[in-house]
Amino acid sequence: MNNFARGPFHVGYERRIDLDLLRKKRVAKADEQRKGAGLDALLVWKDENCRYLTDLRPQLIAGKTTALNGALLVEGMAPILFCSGGERDRVDRTMPWITEAYTIPIVEEKALVDGMMKDILGPVLRKYRLSDARLGLDEANTVFVKALTTHFPALRVEDGDTPMQQARRIKLPEELVLLEEATAIADAVTASATAAVREGVRECDVAGEAMRTLFQLGGEYAHVMTPFVASGEHMAPPHRICSDKLIRHGDIVFIDIGAAWGGYFGDVARSVICGTPSAEQKKIFTAVYDSLHAGIAEMRPQRTNKDAATAMIGAASRYGLAGNFLSLFIAHGVGIGANEPPYIGETLPGAPTYEFQPGMVFAVEPLIWVEGVRGGGGVRLEEMVLITENGPHVISRAPFDSKLIL
Questions:
Q1: Are the beta carbons of 175 and 19 closer than 8 angstroms?
Q2: Pairing state of beta strands 269-273 and 259-261?
Q3: What is the pLDDT of residues 272-315, one digit of tens each?
Q4: Which of 233, 246, 258, 381 ranks highest by number of CB atoms within 10 Å?
């Protein structure tokens, strides 16, 4: 596959990806991980896992993740879909690869969940002889888990999310094509937002222009539910929303909206200046810029996430800012999940060290902030990076604000 975005349409004048084949490959990868984990079946509810197995693009309701749609993977069977009634008619008419589907309620009200267990999910588990199986579950609310274990006391509920994470970690060639397309849209979204930055507009105005471009180009979602536009002092410390704050001359403006397309996410972010930057702002920006590129240079086989994090912090230390990173990981995996393991620069207990492998994709996003800088002393820059046999391939192409580089 070529490392550029050919276009999001299905066309007859050149070969693009076979989506039916991609679905089969993803299911095969998940089934391989299921077997490796010693599980008899996988039952998934997380949006990204359900889409990975079924390609369902559902209506998403804020706060209802893991409560709307699910999928059951049983050896030798196409994934079985459990979907909201609002999706069912469309599924039956437009998704022929789904050969078995069931309508379920929102999985949260105890009486409805109990009814679902007795009359919908329960019969399916019995049908496939899973009443006393080792069932991998990715994520579910307490009322569902209690109903499941009450109705099936011999069922052994195991970790089903780790096998799904392992299946998704190394991207298939077709997934990389979709990630290129998503990132091309994310670059365009970033360009629209950057062009909207001027004195007297609000952060929400900038986000609005970005979201217009996202939907105009056929994007599915922003990278996060809360589009992130923060200006001036709102970046020190970062306010991770957009607000009605007016952008003023001398403000650094941070834009992190990205795009999803075809189920895959492009996560791109830039910081730009409104007007003329101060010397301190240029120093902070250049520290982040150098940190970003130092980390990317380490992202190759036989190097580790620790090597990349050390390089980023080392680059910032040359500006006396090694202690000014946001208290969050510095990079995260990205794919059919907007934010997924593995991580770079995670400092919380239990953070593993691992080697980079070809096919991993990361959003690399160092953020340094300094309080008390007029016009804001917070900067984040974010690139989409694919690990290849020959080193890192930077997927994103949005330009950096040259006025801020020392």
A1: no
A2: unpaired
A3: 999 999 999 999 999 999 999 999 999 999 999 999 999 999 99
A4: 258
Backbone angles phi, psi at 107, to 5 degrees: -85, 80
Residues 65 and 47: beta-carbon distance below 8 Å: yes
What the chain holds in terms of domains, given with CATH numbers, is: 19-168 (3.40.350.10), 170-404 (3.90.230.10)
227's CB contacts (< 8 A; 6+ apart) are 207, 210, 211, 242, 256, 257
Nearest to 310 by CA among 328, 326, 322, 327: 322
Query: What is the pLDDT confidence band of residue 2, given thresholds at 50, 70 and 90?
Result: low
Residue 377 pLDDT class (50, 70, 90 cuts): very high
Report the candidate in 258, 217, 265, 364 with the shortest Cα–Cα distance to residue 48.
Answer: 265
Q: Poorest-confidence range of 56-65, 104-113, 195-204, 226-235?
A: 56-65
What mean pLDDT comes out for the span 331-350?
96
Q: Are 87 and 58 in contact (CB under 8 A)?
A: yes
Residue 393 pairs in a beta bridge with 386
Beta bridge partners of 246: 202
Residue 336: both structure tokens together:
């059919």
Lookup result for tokens 């579910």:
140
Supply 326's token pair. Answer: 């946001």
Residue 132 has pLDDT above 90, yes or no: yes
Order of strands, sheet of 70-74, starting from the edge strand that comes earlier in the sequence: 101-104, 80-84, 70-74, 41-44, 134-137, 156-159
The whole-model pTM stands at 0.96
